[in-house]
Amino acid sequence: MAENPVYPSVFVVDGQAKNIPFVPPHRRNNRHRGTIHMLLGVLVMLALAGVAIEAFFLMKFRKELDSTTVTLLPGGPSSHWCVLGCKKRKIDPEKPAAHLRGANFTTPKNGPLLWEHIKGDAFINKMDYQDGALIIRKTGYYFVYSKVIVGEVSCNNDQSHFFKHSIIRRSEKYPVEIPLMVTRKFYCTGKAEQWLENSFLGGVFYLEEKDRIYVNVFEKHLVRMQDGTMSYFGAFML
């Protein structure tokens, strides 16, 4: 074997070709390998960067997921579900609130419904209760609500029957009752021999100190249930 490699002949077609440098084949192969190695290195770096970015977003998502985990707050009847990252809130004992249960339909015809305000889950905080009315101590916005179960055992379909459920406000500034919410409906209509239904009222109102709020029902004999889960009345400050 010859010590020096034999290269192919080079033919010059144009006189300017003499300016083109000649690169031996083994040097060209080394250059190609270097380019490939550089590209592979760039790809590896991009892949590692992608893994790092993905890990960062996974950690961020995990923190957000932990913060949005549904948590059941302790506190008995006042417990509530905290969802979508809301913070645990403690009940503010300074905010007035009351929940009365079990409507008493033996009240006078024109008087408000009477309620159980001590037993069971009934309670009064920073408010007063007197003769069926809640008395406001602190001026502010309140959510007021009431629900009653009403029914008729024996319907008389020959007459029109009208039922009204309302929450009333009495203020020292006004000499008359102020209806906050009212629902009206006919009952014992059609051919039904019996009738049973519930009536619910709820809304936000601005109440002032010494205001009285209470529940009135037209046709009180229709109030059938004294169960606190079916008939109740309450308010809480926002």
From TrEMBL:
Entries under Pfam families matching the protein? TNF (PF00229)
Recorded hits in SUPFAM superfamilies, A to Z, give:
TNF-like
InterPro entries linked:
FASL (IPR028326), TNF (IPR006053), TNF_dom (IPR006052), Tumour_necrosis_fac-like_dom (IPR008983)
Give the main localization category. Answer: cytoplasm
> Membrane-spanning regions, if any?
36-58
The signal peptide stretch is none
Q: Got a GO cellular component term for this one?
A: lysosomal lumen
Q: Which residues form the THD domain?
A: 96-238
Keywords on record: Apoptosis, Cytokine, Cytoplasmic vesicle, Lysosome, Membrane, Nucleus, Repressor, Transcription, Transcription regulation, Transmembrane, Transmembrane helix, Ubl conjugation
Q: Which CDD domains match?
A: TNF
The record's GO molecular-function terms, alphabetically, read: cytokine activity; tumor necrosis factor receptor binding
Record's subcellular location? Cytoplasmic vesicle lumen; Lysosome lumen; Membrane; Nucleus
- What GO biological process terms are annotated to this protein in UniProt? apoptotic process; immune response
Q: What does this protein do?
A: Induces FAS-mediated activation of NF-kappa-B, initiating non-apoptotic signaling pathways. Can induce apoptosis but does not appear to be essential for this process.
* Record's subunit section: Homotrimer. Interacts with ARHGAP9, BAIAP2L1, BTK, CACNB3, CACNB4, CRK, DLG2, DNMBP, DOCK4, EPS8L3, FGR, FYB1, FYN, HCK, ITK, ITSN2, KALRN, LYN, MACC1, MIA, MPP4, MYO15A, NCF1, NCK1, NCK2, NCKIPSD, OSTF1, PIK3R1, PSTPIP1, RIMBP3C, SAMSN1, SH3GL3, SH3PXD2B, SH3PXD2A, SH3RF2, SKAP2, SNX33, SNX9, SORBS3, SPTA1, SRC, SRGAP1, SRGAP2, SRGAP3, TEC, TJP3 and YES1.
Q: What name does UniProt use for this protein?
A: Tumor necrosis factor ligand superfamily member 6
